[in-house]
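User: Hi! I have a protein structure encoded as tokens and I'd like to know what sequence might fold into it. I'm fairly new to this, so please keep things simple.
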């Protein structure tokens, strides 16, 4: 103990001295009060009140580090003082030692369960630590202590909003409004909860109430715009955004929403201008770089999009959305390795990032890995049941896996969640087409087009549905949309020349017309028949086609000259794409030009194959069981050779007519030597035509061989998948395009066995043993 003779006060005066210090403390004279507290402690080192008050005074002066040892000493002197524990927690909180602060607040509430301030500090610290569920419970404790505590209801509402427990958020906002019915901010937050619950009209009403109470609440205008954007009320959304920006010209959310809306409206220059302004005001706003990258991606400027995503990641390496969106860009660029890497990074940062699962499911769909696509879509839905994009992907994966009824449920759910979702309407149309529900498919395409007048993919799909139903008049017109979207497989066939495009209006007498082949080889084989109609109009016909067909096309009636695809053409007056000729000639079901044989065979090659095959002792049947692996629907139209052989009678001679074999069929072919395979000698279609001419019958899936054989007027049996290609129409066993063709159709089960069983029976009837 110090020598008491050197002090200004004596022990009996300590109580009065403490009162004097407290008076100085309460007057805000902290330095003077601290000197007195320290003087008391120099007399009585373990004086509890002087210790804890000195600690509190130092903390009040923001000298937190200096206050810590005094708090610790006070707690050692009196470990059951809830006030000291609470104040110590405040000091630790100020030093960002949140976990320790929380521990002391909790001790304070354990000692005094009615201590409201300590309960408030527990709740706020849990909120700071983002332990949101515990924070919500802590605010509930406060409400039980004080049912009129307005702030606790508001904070619980905000926490439940973060936790995506929107019903609970709404209940707490409503409770807060009972205590303070004129609080504009609560109505604004309440609108956010209603929006997340899909109660859009009520959400708008809540924002409007906020605006009525406070016409200068920019957040309400900005948030209302989000709902209006979802409801496709573009004009109203822009007005709401403008009002927000009039009130607060630098309102970040309003500017970001403006950019999103302008981007959706395809006003890309204006959207870029908006994001550029955002970044000039907020140069470290990573989300603005992400959104601007989306615009650059839509514009096809992949380099700038990539730069913006990378900048967003540099600013915020923990933002999973930047990686997920960049993964989408790499998906479009077919850089699958980098796409996968970005999705993995997004999910490493946030294993519950539903957008990354949604986007990765798209990548798996592109790679035809449908099981994994389905798994990722289901994960996304589990994390966010309102994720309409994930339901769309789930529907597409289920469709690809042949689970059509389930796919329809998923696509309907996507549309229910987002009734302006044009892509889902188009996908549902494709699914209904495959299910042979053509009228419903057309209706779904109509809804997609109504939502997006420029949705040419939906228009093209609608054209296919119209054509398969026999509505050629409207179908041919819509089919012209095949050249208007670079994402469609037909776009690569689009050509442009200075000469007029002929669609039947101008006279062709004495004129030269260039006909451009397009799409698959089968399309050229089917529609080259129109050359004779052009010739009858007095035209000289030049056909541009793939090299594999050139020799065969030279002998087609009406064709004057054949040139290789994409080679410089000779002089001509008009041009037309091959599959636009039915439109030009106004072809209907009744006027389809269907000559018995418009393709011909080289006599020398026909004789060559006759000699090679040798004397015929059994009926000869050509087989085609799978098509080109490059075809988008090859999995649906192809059949395993082993399955086909199970249904074919043994007393016939079978000849493989295809030149491309899947791995699954190679072993089967090798183990069945009775199937003749001349694939090495089939150099072009003139060779195949000559071989076909020596056969009695051709059995084929829907490939170019069906058109070759039909064009030669060879008896041909074609196996057609459920949801057929438009040219085979619906429900018919014959084809108005080919008199010699008979069709065998899958039923809705999409199994090939019933078709093959019927073929086997018909073979026995045609060629009895």
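Assistant: Happy to help. Inverse folding works backwards from shape to sequence: for each of the 769 positions I chose a residue that suits the local structure. Here it is:
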């Amino acid at each position: 103990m110090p020598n008491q003779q050197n002090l200004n006060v004596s022990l009996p005066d300590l109580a009065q001295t403490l009162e004097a210090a407290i008076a100085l403390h309460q007057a805000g004279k902290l330095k003077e009060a601290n000197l007195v507290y320290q003087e008391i402690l120099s007399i009585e080192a373990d004086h509890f009140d002087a210790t804890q008050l000195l600690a509190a005074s130092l903390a009040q002066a923001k000298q937190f580090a200096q206050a810590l040892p005094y708090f610790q000493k006070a707690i050692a002197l009196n470990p059951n003082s809830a006030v000291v524990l609470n104040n110590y927690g405040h000091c630790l909180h100020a030093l960002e030692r949140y976990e320790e602060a929380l521990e002391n607040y909790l001790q304070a509430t354990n000692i005094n369960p009615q201590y409201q301030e300590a309960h408030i500090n527990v709740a706020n610290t849990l909120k700071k630590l983002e332990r949101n569920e515990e924070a919500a419970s802590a605010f509930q404790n406060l409400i039980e202590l004080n049912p009129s505590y307005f702030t606790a209801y508001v904070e619980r509402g905000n926490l439940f909003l973060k936790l995506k427990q929107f019903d609970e958020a709404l209940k707490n906002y409503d409770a807060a409004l009972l205590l303070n019915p004129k609080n504009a901010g609560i109505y604004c937050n309440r609108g956010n909860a209603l929006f997340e619950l899909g109660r859009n009209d009520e959400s708008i009403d809540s924002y409007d109430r906020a605006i009525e109470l406070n016409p200068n609440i920019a957040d309400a205008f900005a948030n209302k715009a989000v709902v209006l954007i979802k409801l496709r009320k573009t004009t109203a959304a822009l007005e709401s955004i403008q009002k927000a920006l009039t009130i607060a010209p630098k309102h970040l959310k309003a500017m970001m929403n403006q950019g999103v809306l302008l981007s959706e409206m395809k006003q890309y220059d204006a959207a870029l201008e908006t994001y550029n302004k955002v970044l000039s005001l907020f140069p470290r706003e990573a989300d603005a770089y992400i959104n601007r990258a989306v615009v650059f991606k839509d514009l096809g400027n992949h380099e700038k999009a990539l730069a913006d995503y990378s900048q967003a990641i540099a600013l915020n390496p923990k933002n999973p959305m930047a990686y997920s969106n960049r993964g989408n860009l790499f998906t479009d660029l077919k850089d699958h390795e980098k796409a996968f890497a970005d999705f993995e990074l997004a999910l490493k940062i946030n294993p519950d990032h539903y957008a990354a699962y949604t986007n990765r499911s798209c990548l798996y769909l592109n790679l035809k890995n449908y099981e994994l696509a389905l798994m990722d879509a289901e994960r996304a839905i589990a994390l966010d049941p309102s994720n309409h994009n994930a339901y769309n992907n789930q529907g597409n994966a289920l469709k690809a896996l042949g689970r059509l009824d389930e796919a329809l449920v998923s696509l309907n759910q996507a549309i229910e969640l987002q009734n302006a979702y044009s892509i889902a309407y188009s996908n549902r149309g494709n699914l209904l087409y495959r299910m042979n529900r053509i009228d419903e498919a057309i209706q779904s395409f109509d809804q997609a087009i109504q939502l997006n007048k420029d949705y040419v993919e939906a228009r093209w799909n609608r054209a296919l549905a119209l054509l398969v139903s026999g509505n050629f008049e409207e179908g041919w017109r819509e089919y012209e949309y095949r050249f208007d979207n670079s994402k469609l497989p037909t776009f690569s066939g689009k050509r442009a020349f200075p000469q007029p495009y002929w669609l039947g209006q101008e006279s062709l007498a004495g004129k030269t017309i260039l006909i451009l082949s397009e799409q698959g080889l089968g399309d050229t084989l089917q529609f080259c028949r129109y050359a004779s109609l052009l010739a009858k109009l007095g035209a000289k016909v030049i056909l541009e086609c793939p090299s594999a067909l050139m020799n065969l096309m030279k002998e087609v009636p009406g064709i004057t000259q054949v040139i290789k695809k994409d080679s410089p053409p000779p002089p001509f007056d008009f041009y037309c794409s091959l599959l636009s000729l039915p439109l030009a000639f106004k072809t209907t079901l009744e006027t389809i030009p269907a000559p018995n044989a418009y393709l011909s065979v080289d006599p020398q090659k026909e004789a060559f194959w006759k000699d090679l095959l040798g004397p015929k002792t059994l009926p000869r049947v050509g087989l085609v069981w799978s098509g080109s692996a490059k075809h988008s629907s090859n999995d649906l139209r192809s059949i395993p050779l082993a399955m086909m052989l199970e249904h074919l009678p043994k007393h016939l001679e079978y000849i493989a007519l295809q030149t491309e074999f899947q791995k699954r069929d190679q072993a089967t072919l090798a183990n069945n030597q009775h199937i003749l395979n001349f694939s090495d000698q089939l150099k072009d279609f003139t060779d195949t035509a000559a071989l076909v001419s020596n056969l009695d019958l051709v059995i084929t899936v829907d490939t170019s061989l069906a058109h070759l054989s039909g064009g030669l007027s060879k008896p041909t049996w074609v196996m057609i998948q459920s949801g057929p290609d438009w040219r085979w129409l619906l429900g018919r066993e014959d084809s108005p395009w080919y008199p010699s063709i008979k069709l065998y159709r899958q039923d809705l089960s999409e199994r090939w066995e019933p078709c093959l069983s019927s073929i086997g029976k018909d073979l026995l009837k045609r060629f009895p043993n």
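A useful reference point when you look it over: The first strand starts at residue 512 and ends at 516. Feel free to ask if any position seems puzzling.
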